Every structure is written in C-alpha cells, then in structure tokens.
Description:
Blueprint: H1 15-25, H2 42-45, H3 51-58, H4 75-94, E1 100-103, H5 124-135, E2 141-145, H6 152-157, E3 164-171, E4 183-187, H7 193-210, E5 215-219, H8 237-254, E6 257-261, H9 270-285
Parallel strand pairs: 1-6, 2-3, 2-5, 3-4, 5-6
Helix pairs in contact: 1-9, 4-5, 7-8, 8-9
Amino acid sequence: MYNLELGRHVFPAQKYSFIYDRIKKDPNLDSIDILAPERARMEDLELVHTFNYLEDLFSYEHSFRTMHSELPLSRSIVDSFMHGVGGTVMAMELSETYQFCFNLGGGYHHSMPDHAEGFCYLNDVAIATRLFQYNNPDKKVLIADLDLHQGNGNSYIFKDDENVFTFSMHQGNIYPKKEDSDLDISLEPGIKDTEYLKILDDSLKKIQNEFKPDLVFYLAGADPYEGDSLGELNISMEGMMERDRRMRNFSRDLDVSTIIVTAGGYAKDPEDTVSIHYNSIRVFCSEEF
C-alpha cells in the first residue's frame, strides 16, 4: 500500500513493509491496533493543493507543477501517496480516542500547494491539519518537524496562520530552499547527541511557553542519524530514541494527542532506517522504552 516501486533509488521505498513486519513480531506491541487507511478524498486534498496542480498530478503529466519532484510520476506512486495522506488523516481522526497515533507513512513536508518538491507529491500533514481546523476552528496545532531537512512546505502553507505553529530543527546548509517557520533551528554539520538534545529541550520549552497546542504532528524523520547518506548530523541510534522520548514526554506534559509520521530516512544501511522508525513506535507505544 505504501511501498513504492523505484528500483535503485536513495529513498528506501520498501521500508514501510519492513517496519510493519517488525511491529508484528514484537510481543511488546501486540496490544496496539493496526489499521489500513483508505485513500484520501479529493475534497481533503483541495484544502491545501490547487486545482491545476491536482489535475496535472492525477493525469500523470510532467508539467512545471510536477517536474520538481525527484520521484517518477505514475499511477502506482500517486496511489501510494493517496494512501499515505489517508493514513495521516485517519491518525488525526483517531487522536480523539488515542493520545499517540502513528502513521507508517506520511511526512511529505516539501510538497507545496501548487507544485511537488523533493520526494513529496502531496502534503499529508498540511491536509490533515486543515481538516482538523475545519472541524475544530478555534483549536491550535503544532507541527514539530525533526527531519534532517526543513519542512519548507508546511512552513510556507501556514506562514500566516496564527493557530498553527511550525517548528523545524534541521541541517541548515542543505536542501531545501528555506521558508520561514515560527521556530527554525538551523543545525551545523557534525552535531552530536548531547548538543542536539539540549537544543531540542530548549526549543520545546520555548514552544511550551509561547503556544498551547490542542494537537501535535511530529515528523520523526530518521535522517538526522549519523549513518544517513544525505546528511551530516551525527546523532546515534540511542540519540534518535532519546529525541523521540523528549517528544513523547512533551506531549504527555501538555496532555495533548500526537500524530507521528515517518518522513525521511536514507541510511547507508537501509536496516538502520527501518530500526529508527521501529524504535519511534516502541518509544511512543511501549512503557518499556
């Protein structure tokens, strides 16, 4: 459903099924509910994306609106994105019942309203946020993006929305062209666990003092990891888990529901990317971690 047929590609397109297999084999996770999402609805996509862009996307046309994607454009790939968006929307809806909801896909944070960017055709977090706002017009949303790359799509989409706080902590000297988030933390190459986690703690404290969210979207990208092929941050496997614990504790302290999406991850050993995402699920869903 989420896997992409990309052949040899830096994006680990089969990671979703490997994460799923790890979950199913873990007795500590046997109490969690695993649900299959529906495809996103067109009317939900239109809360964020323009008619002309969607028309090009669903006709699989290589136009100036779709050409900036670094993925092929095909029916199967668009279908995967539609299910990925559907998964984030479903997680948002289930957040009324559960404090932590995890989408094995999602985190397509570079996609803009009128064009694709990076490995992102549809912006699932923006769509789910707009749908949440539609149903809860006075409530506030925090988008906490700890992917290697700035969440430029979300920063752009919500730049004038006082009810959405965008926080992006990323390597500053790489893709993409930056947009203004409400809180941008530009990290230097080579940063290690202790400094990274101190900056994260300070940032979360600042957010907690300035903004009281009713819902959190957490983009738990695996690519700040020291073994990532696209990044130069030096966060260990344990440091990545500690990052997730900080986000879990932040949500618990505020007593707010959180949707976790996988976003990016391009480790030289693809098993490391799977392990980081799997560990995120363990941290949020099992008291043992």
